[in-house]
Predict the structure.
Amino acid sequence: MTIAKENKEFINSLIEYYISESESYREIAEEFRPEIESVQDTAFGIITGCVYSGFLQAYQNQQQTASLEDIKEFNEMIKQKAPEIKKAISSQRKTDHQSNDKTE
């Protein structure tokens, strides 16, 4: 079984939402300094974890269980969007640095 069209659309909308909110997740990750080595990687992990949680919740709401094939397909969807997610996280960081440079 592969991911149903409606669930794919839902997952894609979740990914887009978290991309648009990437600044918030980067700020959350920054709170874990110095315990973490990479704010960007931590923010990426938080975002993908939130999307994965939404993916599982969608199945639970439908009284279904995600199969191994569904999870693999989900992982592929995340891999395809990974550059866009990382770009959103890192571009916000650049904007913050530019703002800080202007105020100093």
Summary: The chain has one domain: 5-99. The mean pLDDT is 88. Helices lie at 5-20, 22-30, 39-61, 68-103.
